């Protein structure tokens, strides 16, 4: 370690140059990292819909439609001409319309009414369009331009339109979140430091690690939209503490020696164990996300772990070198303390100690049960009528009702079973029409008599594809029960079948949430339990700290249940580990100071001193994390991101409240247990030394 410290101090200019060049290079790579907006891609390989999508990609020339194109006041010939125009557009893979489901040469009144009205109703045409993955940003605006030429009130909706909207707004929303967060961080850091320039150094060190983290994602090829939105904000909010620890230690050492280089060397030695312990607990909390079946957890978790490691490296390498280059500016921009002294903050907090303990004991069981019954939403975006995308959804729904398709893939060859299944599906509640070879062409018509473009819609080498159109929302009890009914109908005729479509994807997501939540929470708790146990060499302290943080998590997640509001399932799954990993440091910091003072003072006095020393750091850290969460909630129109942000902001404040109000009480009232279960505790004993004055008149 001494060799590393000596190298950083001796080669400070080279170290700063290396990190800056690396950051610039990685920043240049960020635009080339693909952002994936399709949640279905992160379902486990064993999921029904995952297998169905894989089969369709491998064996079918045409994918599932992902866009609805509405054109008002158009006759059949004009609609057919528009279909050809749409099909010829760049990024469009296929177009389905009435002529694919029926013979439009026959007078429409003679055709099946439900089939006709799926595509053509009251002079309005609805085209089912498949836009190629990755082409949404160009194809959707082009489709809108085409239909706008046909008149007012025409619309483009569906998954492709939602993805195009998210792509268009993603960077803007991240920048808005940063614009909210950075000024608040600067303000909090200015208040908590003694130099105007120190906040700039903090943000520069962590900012470099963020750029490197985002640029090195090029090695993965792509990241999810959740990772792209959340990771840089969380990395900034969580790892700023590392920089604060180092520079506070540097300021303290400068008071002991006039040699600036020696002061930094001592500060690095003194702060590295604390920073490493803090980073390790956060790292294990984030790493637990990788145990989710839903693979977006691994995508986000691995990225956050990488970010924490990079933040640790930049704080321990770049920040010392940069500080030594700029310490004269730090001295010239010094200012008096701007925050009041919190040395006696315990006088107020001790009054709520017992009430806080009682309130938590009363709420613990209802909160635990409530958070396990939270109602989830599974979509990424909610239509905003003020935006074109939301207005188009409303327009399509008003004319044609809900547009939702469920594809069923079954083994090819048994025409009788295919016909029976098509008939069964058509009889199900909420199914408006069924598109299959036997329902459109007829079982009696040999495939060889038809153009391959017709048969390719329904048959691959091994599978037949049947598409059931339903009038439900894409999620909710009705939608999911319809998916179950479709699967039950398929099971009556086939031993092997697969379902796909937005509702089928969300149905699979719903089924993995409960398992993922339990597994990820247990992994995070067990990992952090052992880290805390090793850090403090104690069996009782891990239980005490985890109780304080987990109580905050349960209360946080129970609030939506008791208020009757939905929570995006990604936010729910992720917050368990993110809040635990990010805020367990609050408890560790307070407990570290408590144990230090407990060796020379009774429990109550040790708590008083520990709170007085750590309260400013806890306030700043929780303030930054809460601001980061609320900034995400305010700036993002993506349900998964805004929901996670709200939970994170509220969770940070709850963790702060419980660490400052509940944890001190637990440390005091469980002091005998902690003393007996902590290796070489060396706690102060009243009968072994004079009793120091206690703020509450009680030795321990």
TrEMBL record:
Bilayer-spanning residue ranges: 174-194, 201-220, 232-252, 273-296, 308-330, 351-369, 518-536, 543-563, 569-595, 615-635, 647-670
Membrane topology of the entry: Multi-pass membrane protein
Keyword Transmembrane helix included in the entry's annotation: yes
GO CC annotations, alphabetized: plasma membrane
Top-rank lineage group of the source organism: Bacteria
Compartments where found: Cell membrane
Keywords recorded for this protein, A-Z: Cell membrane, Membrane, Transmembrane, Transmembrane helix
PROSITE patterns with a match to the protein in the record: PROKAR_LIPOPROTEIN (PS51257), SSD (PS50156)
Acetylation is among the record's keywords: no
Domain SSD: 202-325
Name assigned to this protein: RND transporter
Organism (species): Enteroscipio rubneri
């Amino acid at each position: 370690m001494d060799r590393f410290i000596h190298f950083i101090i001796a080669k400070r200019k080279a170290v700063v140059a290396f990190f800056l060049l690396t950051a610039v290079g990685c920043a240049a790579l960020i635009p080339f990292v693909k952002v994936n907006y399709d949640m279905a891609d992160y379902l486990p390989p064993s999921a029904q819909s995952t297998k169905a999508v894989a089969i369709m990609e491998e064996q079918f020339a045409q994918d599932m439609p992902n866009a609805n194109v509405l054109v008002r006041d158009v006759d059949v010939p004009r609609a057919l001409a528009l279909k050809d125009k749409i099909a010829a557009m760049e990024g469009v893979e296929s177009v389905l319309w009435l002529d694919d489901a029926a013979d439009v040469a026959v007078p429409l009144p003679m055709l099946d009414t439900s089939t006709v009205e799926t595509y053509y109703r009251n002079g309005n045409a609805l085209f089912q369009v498949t836009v190629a993955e990755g082409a949404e940003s160009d194809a959707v605006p082009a489709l809108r331009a085409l239909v706008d030429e046909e008149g007012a009130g025409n619309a483009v909706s569906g998954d492709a339109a939602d993805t195009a909207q998210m792509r268009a707004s993603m960077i803007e929303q991240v920048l808005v979140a940063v614009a909210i967060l950075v000024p608040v961080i600067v303000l909090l850091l200015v208040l908590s430091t003694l130099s105007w320039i120190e906040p700039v150094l903090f943000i520069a060190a962590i900012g470099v690690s963020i750029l490197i983290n985002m640029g090195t994602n090029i090695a993965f090829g792509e990241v999810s939209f959740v990772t792209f939105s959340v990771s840089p904000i969380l990395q900034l909010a969580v790892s700023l503490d590392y920089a604060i620890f180092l520079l506070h230690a540097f300021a303290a050492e400068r008071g002991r020696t006039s040699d600036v280089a020696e002061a930094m060397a001592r500060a690095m030695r003194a702060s590295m164990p604390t920073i490493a312990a803090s980073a390790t607990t956060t790292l294990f909390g984030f790493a637990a996300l990788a145990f989710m079946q839903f693979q977006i957890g691994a995508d986000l978790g691995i990225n956050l772990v990488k970010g924490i490691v990079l933040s640790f490296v930049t704080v321990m390498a770049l920040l010392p070198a940069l500080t030594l280059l700029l310490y004269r500016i730090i001295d010239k921009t010094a200012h008096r303390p701007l925050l009041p002294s919190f040395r006696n903050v315990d006088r107020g907090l001790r009054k709520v100690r017992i009430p806080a303990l009682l309130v938590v004991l009363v709420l613990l069981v209802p909160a635990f049960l409530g958070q396990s019954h939270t109602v989830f939403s599974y979509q990424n975006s909610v239509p905003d009528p003020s935006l074109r995308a939301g207005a188009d959804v409303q327009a399509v729904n008003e004319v044609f009702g809900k547009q939702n398709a469920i594809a069923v893939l079954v083994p090819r060859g048994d025409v009788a079973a295919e016909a029976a299944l098509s008939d069964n599906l058509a009889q199900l509640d909420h199914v408006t029409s069924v598109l299959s070879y036997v329902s459109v062409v007829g079982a009696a018509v040999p495939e060889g008599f038809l153009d391959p473009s017709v048969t390719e819609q329904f048959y691959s080498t091994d599978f037949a594809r049947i598409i059931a159109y339903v009038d439900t929302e894409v999620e909710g009890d009705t939608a999911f029960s319809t998916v179950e009914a479709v699967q039950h109908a398929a099971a009556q005729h086939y031993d092997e079948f697969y379902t796909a479509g937005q509702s089928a994807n969300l149905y699979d997501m719903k089924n993995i949430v409960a398992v993922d939540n339990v597994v990820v929470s247990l992994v995070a708790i067990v990992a952090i339990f052992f880290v805390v146990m090793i850090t403090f060499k104690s069996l009782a302290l891990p239980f005490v700290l985890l109780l304080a943080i987990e109580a905050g998590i349960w209360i946080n997640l129970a609030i939506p249940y008791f208020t009757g509001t939905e929570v995006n399932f990604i936010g729910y799954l992720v917050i368990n580990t993110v809040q635990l990993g990010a805020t367990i440091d609050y408890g560790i910091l307070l407990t570290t100071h408590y144990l230090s003072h407990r060796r020379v003072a009774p429990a109550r006095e040790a708590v008083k001193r520990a709170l007085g020393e750590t309260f400013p750091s806890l306030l700043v850290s929780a303030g930054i994390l809460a601001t980061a969460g609320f900034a995400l909630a305010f700036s993002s129109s993506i349900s998964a991101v805004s929901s996670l942000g709200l939970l994170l902001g509220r969770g940070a404040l709850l963790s702060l409240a419980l660490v400052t109000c509940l944890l001190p009480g637990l440390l005091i009232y469980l002091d005998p247990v902690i003393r007996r279960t902590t290796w070489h505790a060396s706690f102060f004993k009243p009968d072994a030394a004079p009793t120091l004055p206690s703020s509450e008149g009680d030795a321990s």
